[in-house]
Amino acid sequence: MRSRFRSDRRLTVRMGLTLFLLGLLYVAFVAALIALLKSWVLVVVIAAAALGAQYWFSDRIALYAMRGRVVEREEFPELHGVVDRLSAMADMPKPEVAVSNMDMPNAFATGRNPDHAVVCVTSGLLRRLEPAELEGVLAHEMSHVAHKDVAVITVASFLGVIAGLVVRFAFYSQLFGGGRRDQNTFVVFAAVIGVSAAVYALSFLLIRALSRYRELAADRAAALLTGRPSALASALTKVTGDIARIPSKDLRTAQAFNAFYFTPALGARPGLVQLFSTHPSLEDRLEQLGRISTELGEAAAPGGA
Question: pLDDT digit string (tens) for 272-301?
């Protein structure tokens, strides 16, 4: 079933290309590990277990890590009301609604498909945004679910997780001959570390490129569904400014989940650094919303300014 969120062919192509390239990288990675470790069963079991856990339990893992909990309508009737309205407008299943007890104003969506999705907002976001701004943020997050890019990012990121697990496993297991420390042991150890590091770096760049585009696609889809790009722009400006005033030490724990947030915990900066960012710059996002506002004639509409 397709939702009424505007489809984005370029996003679909980018997701397919990213998964294809990461799939090739994954096959090469597993083949290299099997050749180095001489144990294909161990490699396949670890890879399958990690992928399965990340795909099936990603929503619960993300909620736990970001201190979120599913809330009932009686607790947050206005929040549920906005999600109900957007679900009806988009003609999609209503996701579970969760709240994270964090002062950092932000939101995220997770889940493997529209029937098993969660939209979570922080208490800091609820406290700071006006109703129209909150609607824009929630529409942005729900478009991630409708476009299925949340599931794609979840699956895509598992390769980097596997690479990291292999490095740790190499340090702490007896795989390399127990207590023996001969030359062959160190050669194999160095090769595993090198392959894992290379895989992690390549998957990191591919995922970041997809993540930046999917945020622009979500902004565009949310603005077109609600018809109020200026409200989303206002929310973006407000949230980004408020995050900048939160001490960096309080944001570092959240930074690991930047790819899932509405705005990054420590900001997206232009220039070469942008290659490593999960989000486009605020300027790029506001410029796109400004163009959509002009196309919709929002400023001329009643209450649109």
Answer: 566 678 899 999 999 999 999 999 886 544
Which H or E element spans position 1?
none
* Domain boundaries defined on the chain: 9-58+131-300
Q: How far apart are CA 286 and CA 305, in angstroms?
A: 15
- Residues 174-184 pLDDT 10s: 444 455 555 66
CA 127, 128, 129, 131 torsion: positive or negative? positive
Which residues are identified as catalytic?
141
Cα–Cα distance, 32 to 53 (Å, whole number): 23
Alpha-carbon distance 119 to 260, whole Å? Answer: 11
| C-alpha pair distances (Å), 280 with each of 15, 142, 222, 237, 271 | 17, 19, 16, 14, 11
Strand order in the sheet with 96-100: 68-70, 96-100, 116-122, 107-113
Is 262 a residue whose pLDDT tops 60? yes
Report the alpha-carbon distance of residue 80 to residue 271 in Å, rounded. 39
Q: Which residues make Cβ contacts (< 8 Å) with residue 251, sequence separation at least 6?
A: 104, 243, 265, 266
- Is the Cα dihedral 85, 131, 110, 279 positive or negative? positive
